[in-house]
Every structure is written in C-alpha cells, then in structure tokens.
C-alpha cells in the first residue's frame, strides 16, 4: 500500500481532489478523510466557500460508503463541521440551532453508558487495575474509606468486585466506607442498593455515602461535610475520566500542543483507511498509529505499554480549578490516588489540530467498539446507541464547545504526570500483579487488537490501554509527596 499524502492545510489552493498527486489513486476513504480535515483547516482560517465545498464532498463520500465504523464516525464529525461553518456564516442562526444534547433521555444515556462498559474491554481493564491498586495500598488497614469521583463509565460491578476481593483478604475485610460522587442521582441510588445487598450477603461491613454533583462544582473547602470524612480511616481516591473537566481555564494559544506535539495528518489518514478496510474483529499487527511522528509526549506504539511519566513538561498550564482540587485531595492524606484518563490531546484553541487529533483517536475507539460488538454478537442497535449517546456526545463537546462550556479536554499521560507532581503528588508504580490484572482482562476479551504482546516490559509503572497500537486510556497511581519543599498546588506554569 502506498503511503498516503499529507492533508492540505488552510493555506493550500482548493481543487477537486484537495491533495497532491499520489503514486496511486487515493481511495474513497482517503478522499473522505482528506476532505474532512481540509474542511477543518478552512473553517479555522475562515475560508467559508472552500470549507463548504470540502464538506459537501465529504458528506457525499460518507453516504457512498458501507455501514462501517468509518462512515459512522464521519457523521458526527461532519455534523460538527457543518455547525462550525454555520456559526461562521450566520452566528444568529447557529445560536438558534437545536442542540441534540439537550434532548437526550437520561435513561437512554444511562443504558448506553452501561453498554459501553460491557462492550469495551478498556473501562473494565482500568477498573481491574484501580481495584488492585486499592487492595495493595490498603493491605493491613482496618478502616478504609474510598472516595470515587465517578466518570461516565461508572457501574456497580467495580465495587461489587472489590467487595469480594476484600472479603477474601487474609484476616478478613475491613470496615469499608464508599463515597461516590456522580451527577446522576438515580444511578447512585441503584449502585448503593446493589452494593448494600451484596455486602449483606458477604457479611462485609459497608456504608455507602452518595454525593450528587459534578467534580467541578464541589466545595473543596468543606471536605468533611461533602465527603463525610472521619478520623482514623485510610483513604483512597479514584478519579475516572473526570480530572480533564477541571482544565476549563487552560486555553492558551499553544494549547496542549505546546509540549512539542506535531499534528500528524498522514497518520490519521493511514489509521482511518485501515479501519475502513479491516474486518471485525480485526487482527492487527502494527498500524499507522502516529507514524514517524517524533513526539516526546506521544505514547509507545504497543498494545499495552507501561511508561514512566517525565518530571516536567514545557509550558504546562495549571488551571485554578485543578490546582484547588489537587490541594484538597492532598489534604485528605490518601494512601493512593488512582487516575484514569483518555490518552489524547483534545485541549487547546486550534480547531484544526483538535479536529485532526479527535479524528484519529475516535477512529480507534469506533473500530474497537465495532470489533467488540461483532465478537460478542451484540445487536447493532446497542452499539449504535453507544456511538450516539456516549461517543457522539464526547465528539460534540470536543469540537463544538469552547471556553468554560467545553468539558472534554483530554490530555496525555506525561502532562497529567507533570500536573500531579506540580500539585504535590509523586508516582506510585503499579505492581506486576496489578499490571497483570489489566493484561488478563484484555486477554479474556478475545479481541486481538488490544491483547498485550508477550514481550511488554515495565518501564516505570503507569499503564496505557491501546487498540491496534493507538493508546486510548491511561491509568496511573499517586500519593502525596511527603518530601520537604514539595511544590505547592497554586496556579502557575511548570517547565
């Protein structure tokens, strides 16, 4: 297969093909990706007519494709481009457009999130790793308080599994308290009921404290009241796909690309082209990934990698909301803080770069979900609901919302590591057993695209969960740094 040609930027002349002549005719999939990215570049440059022509070609190409993950991904991407284009042309009309997010049934969203957890092996692997890290940190503790800042994949099975693990602990289970922070009161009530029933059957002493709210709206000055803290308890903090919501004040001209990331359009074309032509479930050796991009912040191209975060990242912004949260979390004196985040650069103010990054990242997510639905023989309607109510909503937030309104500000592990260190935390390397736990979950899922190779090596204790060499999620563990002179958590920039 020939190497795809780079996608033109907003400064290139617009023509019918929107690409430089290639050694072989570009495929329909390549043209689709080129037109989508070309449209994003023209939208950023304010070239309305060129953007409109690119978008028209892209929607026509998407309609001609079969019902595969590439065509389905093109729908929310093209919709976001169309809305951005309308915003450029007639702002008053853009403000009057109906926002589909406002009309989602909460019950449908809850069901779609549950389906995502059941279909995708990555949330389950992250849960297994987090539980094992908690067990090891609380090995000899008699009174344990787990504070869960639960994200969109929150499900009761995580804590049911932990109840069983604690029950099998030599010496018996601890007195366990679980505080769950989530914005869905009905989900919290359901989780609380299921956990209470399970604890009674196991004879594990358990108290569940429910906090209905969002992580960005909590009063960090009243931890005892909000989180129900008590003296004499060992604490663990779990943040699952939530910390990025505290980056709303981090917009800057360089964005998350200030640490040396170079937008690799060629890699995105190769990744999406492979996705469109791969059967499900895929059996992928190596893929386009990030290509030859020599990016110091990029993740290793292995299905599951373990990396050491660097001590610093250039020009890193520490938003006040995140600084305040980390200060409050450090004041809890937790034995461990487990952080799970999307492994992508979806921050910054450059729409073109954000679009290209989102296109590559969600190509891998859609591909993995398609493979899982096929392998598990789940109905197509279930997978479609996940794409509409979970992934589609993420994409809309990444591409359409700006400023304080945008919450999906995903960032990569090296930058999260630098922020955690700036906030007064030090890395806790995940143990071999913990990493094996995550590895086993991926192996049991039966999807070759996310099984770790036998020669994966531990490079320091942070976990990357990947699909076909494309990192999707990171899991890391931390504890307060007790060294004198540890950096304070106030706003600022580290270098």
The whole-angstrom Rg is 23 Å
Largest sheet: 9 strands, mixed
Order of helices and strands: HHHHHHEHEHEHEHEEHEHHHEHEEE
Separate helix tally: 15
Distance between the termini: 42 Å
Mean pLDDT: 79
Q: What percent of residues are in strands? A: 5-15%
Beta-strand segment tally: 11
Low-confidence residue ranges: 1-24, 252-269, 275-314, 451-459, 484-495
Name the helicity range. 40-55%
Based on secondary structure, the structural category is alpha/beta
The 3D shape can be described as: globular
Written overview of the protein:
The strands form two sheets. Strands 1, 2, 3, 4, 5, 7, 8, 9 and 10 form a nine-stranded mixed sheet that branches. The chain has a two-stranded antiparallel sheet with strand order 6-11. The radius of gyration is 23 Å and the shape is globular. It has helices spanning 28-45, 48-64, 69-89, 91-96, 106-119, 121-137, 156-167, 185-202, 223-227, 265-277, 320-331, 351-375, 380-400, 413-422, 432-444, and strands at residues 143-149, 175-182, 206-212, 234-240, 304-307, 316-318, 336-342, 425-427, 462-467, 470-480, 492-494. Helix 1 (28-45) packs parallel to helix 3 (69-89). The protein has 495 residues and is an alpha/beta fold. Residues 1-24, 252-269, 275-314, 451-459 and 484-495 have low confidence and may be disordered.
List the helices and strands and how they pair.
Elements: H1 28-45, H2 48-64, H3 69-89, H4 91-96, H5 106-119, H6 121-137, E1 143-149, H7 156-167, E2 175-182, H8 185-202, E3 206-212, H9 223-227, E4 234-240, H10 265-277, E5 304-307, E6 316-318, H11 320-331, E7 336-342, H12 351-375, H13 380-400, H14 413-422, E8 425-427, H15 432-444, E9 462-467, E10 470-480, E11 492-494
Parallel strand pairs: 1-2, 1-4, 2-3, 4-7
Antiparallel strand pairs: 5-9, 6-11, 7-10, 8-10, 9-10
Helix pairs in contact: 1-2, 1-3, 1-10, 1-12, 2-3, 3-12, 3-13, 5-6, 5-13, 6-7, 6-15, 7-8, 10-12, 12-13
């Amino acid at each position: 297969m020939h190497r795809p040609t780079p996608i033109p930027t907003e400064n290139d002349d617009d023509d019918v093909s929107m690409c430089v002549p290639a050694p072989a005719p570009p495929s329909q999939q390549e043209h689709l990706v080129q037109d989508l990215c070309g449209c994003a570049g023209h939208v950023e440059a304010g070239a309305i007519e060129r953007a409109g022509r690119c978008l028209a070609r892209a929607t026509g190409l998407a309609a001609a494709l079969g019902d595969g993950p590439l065509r389905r991904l093109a729908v929310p991407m093209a919709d976001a481009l169309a809305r951005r284009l309308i915003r450029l042309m007639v702002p008053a009309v853009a403000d009057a457009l109906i926002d589909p997010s406002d009309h989602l049934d909460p019950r449908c969203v809850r069901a779609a999130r549950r389906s995502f957890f059941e279909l995708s092996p990555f949330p389950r692997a992250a849960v297994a790793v987090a539980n094992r890290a908690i067990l090891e940190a609380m090995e000899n503790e008699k009174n344990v308080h787990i504070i869960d800042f639960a994200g969109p994949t929150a499900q009761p099975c995580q804590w049911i599994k932990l109840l069983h693990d604690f029950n099998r602990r030599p010496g018996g289970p601890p007195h366990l308290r679980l505080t769950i922070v989530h914005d869905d009161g009905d989900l919290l009530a359901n989780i609380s009921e299921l956990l209470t029933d399970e604890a009674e059957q196991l004879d594990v002493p358990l108290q569940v404290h429910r906090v209905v709210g969002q992580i960005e709206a909590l009063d960090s000055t009243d931890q005892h009241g909000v989180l129900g803290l008590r003296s004499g308890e060992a604490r663990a903090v779990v943040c699952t796909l939530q910390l990025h919501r505290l980056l709303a004040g981090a917009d800057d001209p360089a964005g998350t690309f200030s640490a040396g990331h170079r937008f690799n359009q060629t890699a995105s074309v190769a990744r999406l082209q492979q996705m469109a032509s791969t059967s499900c479930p895929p059996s992928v050796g190596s893929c386009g990934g990030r290509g030859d991009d020599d990016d110091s912040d990029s993740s290793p191209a292995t299905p599951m990698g373990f990396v050491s975060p660097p001590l610093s990242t250039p020009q890193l912004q520490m938003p006040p909301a995140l600084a305040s949260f980390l200060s409050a979390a450090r004041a809890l004196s937790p034995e461990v803080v487990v952080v799970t985040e999307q492994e992508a650069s979806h921050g910054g103010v450059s729409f073109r770069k954000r679009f290209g990054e989102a296109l590559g990242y969600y190509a891998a997510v859609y591909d993995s979900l398609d493979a899982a639905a096929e392998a598990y023989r789940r109905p197509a309607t279930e997978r479609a609901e996940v794409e509409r109510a979970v992934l589609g909503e993420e994409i809309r937030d990444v591409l359409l919302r700006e400023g304080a309104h945008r919450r999906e500000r995903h960032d990569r592990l090296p930058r999260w590591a630098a922020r955690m260190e700036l906030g007064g935390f030090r890395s806790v390397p995940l143990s071999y057993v913990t990493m094996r736990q995550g590895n086993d979950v991926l192996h049991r899922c039966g999807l070759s695209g996310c099984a770790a190779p036998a020669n994966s090596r531990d490079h320091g204790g942070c976990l990357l969960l990947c699909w076909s060499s494309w990192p999707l999620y990171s899991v890391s563990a931390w504890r307060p740094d007790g060294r004198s002179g540890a950096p304070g958590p106030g706003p600022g920039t580290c270098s």
